[in-house]
């Protein structure tokens, strides 16, 4: 179970992934050494990873989209399919659903690709796939997909959050692709988004001042983004589910924003397909999930139908894979092998 200080540290990182430990300490009323020690323990034990990610949308390319793919397959082939999805850089999230015959993943692929091309280019050739549903993500509600999930409580107040941000809200610059000379720095940030400037200088052979300038330029142009991956299971939240909802089109945006604001909800989006809204909820247990469905979701009269898919095993988050109960670097970690024992 997470305590108040760890929760506030995680929230601070989700607001500003590279915020100095000194500033967090000033805001939460702890020493800088305590904050640093707590963070390194959380990272070392695989509870949290701050990762730097190259932004594939930096040029405003409208010819690409995110697709939510539900794959129904033979149970004995789930492991092979999961390995292929986890290893593919176009796949940002992957999960096994209850029943051990279904995988759900998010894939970035061109709009021009056919339904089959979206997956067949990214999966081994196999006859084990029984059926595939592919829906486009039309709109993300609330904050961006990498926004924090703080349903575990211990949030910072609005005033504290503003102090964490400080003057770091740099205006967006002109779109810019990273250069080849940036690769050592980007690789280091992909492993640890909080890599100190001094270590980035060692990796690149640049001065610390040059590293600061280049990093600021990439961040300002949004060519470099940060994601904070958190493993809820290690914080006492052992149940995760995906909701597939039907809402009248005229109410889609308002209901989507309402759902995105719920503490239990980590992600909410409008999608194509038979259901026009989807959401990911994170709960302590089945009682917590039932309470959310009956009370908060049940209060939204515009929801016509809903389906619940329990996630049996989380395989990949945006910047991390989940292996041996830890968040790990996808490059260095072995792909997780699903099993009904979790």
TrEMBL record:
The transmembrane segments are none
Q: Write down the superkingdom of origin.
A: Bacteria
What Gene Ontology terms describe where this protein resides (cellular component)?
cytosol
Keywords in alphabetical order: DNA-binding, Transcription, Transcription regulation
* UniProt xrefs under SMART domains: HTH_ASNC (SM00344)
Pfam families (UniProt xref): AsnC_trans_reg, HTH_AsnC-type
Q: Where is the HTH asnC-type domain?
A: 182-238
Q: Quick one: a GO biological-process term for this protein? A: response to amino acid
Among SUPFAM superfamilies, the record links this protein to: Dimeric alpha+beta barrel, Winged helix' DNA-binding domain
Q: Name one GO molecular function term.
A: sequence-specific DNA binding
User: Matching InterPro entries, A to Z?
Assistant: AsnC-type_HTH_dom, Dimeric_a/b-barrel, Tscrpt_reg_AsnC-like, Tscrpt_reg_AsnC/Lrp_C, WH-like_DNA-bd_sf, WH_DNA-bd_sf
What is the name of this protein? AsnC family transcriptional regulator
Q: Which organism was this protein described from?
A: Mycobacterium scrofulaceum
